[in-house]
Amino acid sequence: MKRSISIVAIALLTLGVPVFAHGGMDHIMGTVTKIVGNIVTVEKDGKTTEVVLASFTTYEANGAAGKQSDLTVGDRVVIHAMKMDGKETAHTVRLVHPHK
Length: 100
Known about the structure:
Elements (H helix, E strand, L loop, with lengths): L1 H20 L4 E11 L2 E6 L2 E15 L2 E3 L9 E9 L2 E10 L4
């Protein structure tokens, strides 16, 4: 009985890690298809997601510190975002320029 409780505890801890890994943020991955002002559209597998780029959003471009102006259509991105006022709002944006 003690062993089965340990196995269940380990399983719950292991399965719970992904939920907390991003602090409850959504993980948005794909290719940038459009940038209009502070809204970026990301597409993956035919599904598009619009994400608001806020003043507190941080950027990483090709493994180095970046800025919003580094973001271009065609970049592959991983965005950690949270819902604010019903919209996905970026906390961090990691991008890879396909030509670099």
